[in-house]
Amino acid sequence: MTSPQPHPDHDRGLEFDLSTLLSRRRSFGLLFGAGTAAALAACTPGSGGGGASPSSSSGAAATATESTTAAVTPSATSTVTRALAECGVEIPEETVGPYPGDGSNGPNVLEASGVVRKDISSSFSSSTTKATGVPLTFTLTLMDNANGCSPLAGAAVYVWHCDQNGKYSLYDSGLKNENYLRGVQEADSNGQVTFTSIYPGAYSGRWPHIHFEVFESMSNTSAAGQVLAVSQIALTEAACKDVYASEGYESSARNFAKSTLADDNVFGDDGGIYQLATMSGSVQGGYTAALNVTV
């Protein structure tokens, strides 16, 4: 297959994207005791907080079906408060897997202009194909364990996951010219990044998950030795059962029926206790997911 001609800005890379962002220094100014409470009280709820609820499709009410949390989406302040309470155990280090797209085994989406974005559902540069599936918004709250669990503001997070059929852009047959379901963001003053996407599918041998890498800053996402953490988000059983019973996820339903969290080769050693997302939502209205990440 002949590859499409790249967009003129395609090879200008992440550095080109960064030139459009305001320069920000990393901030670790969150104090403890009364200072912590005051700082948290002053926080302005960010976009999404614990994951902003996606819009309902066809006007259907977003009835919560997840059992892990209430359907009310938490604010950024409450999410950071919870992250502080849970901080102390660093996120388990995991493999990037065979489809990272970070240059470690072939394709490097981190060099492509357009990778810095919140909505990762579409490809960018040479293609604008949009992945289909149940809407998913997910938020990571990054905490710096070495600095008293203060929010890791200014860090960069690269996320990627499979499509509703369990296939990965840049790698799988028919998707090598696509780069959807991949993106980078800078953590805000609360240490948070929020992405909008579609619910990942399930493929043979793995529990449904989302990959992520945490870098020290936006300016070194492609620099060797600057990765602070490599891990994965585990999605909840209740949400997976509901999503995979919906149209378009037929192959995922078959694969998921053969999977258990305890037997997964990544999450099975501890049941994913530090990587299992807090989730709420519905197939009709979309899902939200949130995870606290201590690095």
TrEMBL record:
User: Looking at the Swiss-Prot or TrEMBL record, what is one Pfam family this protein matches?
Assistant: Dioxygenase_C
Q: Which domain of life is it from?
A: Bacteria
| Database matches in InterPro entries | Intradiol_dOase_C
* Keywords, comma-separated and alphabetical: Dioxygenase, Oxidoreductase
Q: Where is the composition biased (Low complexity)?
A: 53-76
Please give one Gene Ontology molecular function term for this protein.
dioxygenase activity
Task: Give start and end of each Intradiol ring-cleavage dioxygenases domain.
Answer: 129-205
Region feature Disordered, mapped onto this chain: 45-76
Q: Which CDD domains match?
A: intradiol_dioxygenase_like
Name of this protein: Intradiol ring-cleavage dioxygenase
- Origin species, per record, is Paenarthrobacter aromaticivorans
